[in-house]
Write a structure and sequence with these properties.
This protein has 3 helices and 15 strands. By secondary structure, it is an alpha+beta fold. The strands form 4 sheets. Strands 2-3-13-10-15-8-5 form a 7-stranded antiparallel β-sheet, with helices on one face. The protein has a 4-stranded antiparallel β-sheet with strand order 9-14-11-12, with no helix packed on it. Strand 2 and strand 3 form a beta hairpin. Helices cover 13% and strands 31% of the residues.
Length: 253
Amino acid sequence: MTPNSPSPRGRRGTSRLGGVPTALRQGSSPRQLTLGVSHAAVAPAREDLLPGAVKIAGWLDTGAQRSLAAAFHQWALPPAGLRRPRVPSGHLMSVQSVCLGWHWEPYAYSRTADDTDGAPVKPLPLELKELARAAVADTLGPESAASYAPDAAIVNLYDSGARLGLHLDGEEASEAPVVTLSLGDSCVFRFAGVGRRNGPFTDIELHSGDLLVFGGPSRRIYHGVPKVLEGTAPEGLGLPPGRLSITLRETGL
């Protein structure tokens, strides 16, 4: 596979219309990303949701959240900046998205932002890779983290009314776990099942600073975000209104 070719697993095609570039509202000045995983005085609360799916509430302290929010302002800038992706049917997704490491366009990966300006995708920062490995170690254990090599991040901004329908992360050849960090507004995160989109569902709330990891038997589970709880973000993060999710993956490409 050549560096700019789409993921071989992206067999559902991509939209000929492309995505729609967007821009963030003006806010606080971006700062350099300098991350260390540090926890608040109250110990983060672990919750085992499903086989291979673990939530840790309050995993990121306020300082780490602010650093990630500041970095997002830089990632969102063009070239290869923030945009609304378009699915092959022509429908625009309600979330706004920017990619790091590999560019994800429904439903394929490439090294360039082929659905907008065609520019090379921004690199995945080393700090984010290390953060993802720490997340896997804290949830699935050091042995799982030792072989974990994240190489892509999809960063989604959920502004007013945005949601994400039930889907599975199926474009990656790797079976390594998915790591999701939540910032800003809280949301309802929904698990359906492996091989099914219908209920019964497992619904959880993710708040700013929470960590969610799913792998193993739950790696290809259907999941989505049916609702964002507007106005619930902590003050002072430097984010635009809404929820920001940073989802890290090992593509195997």
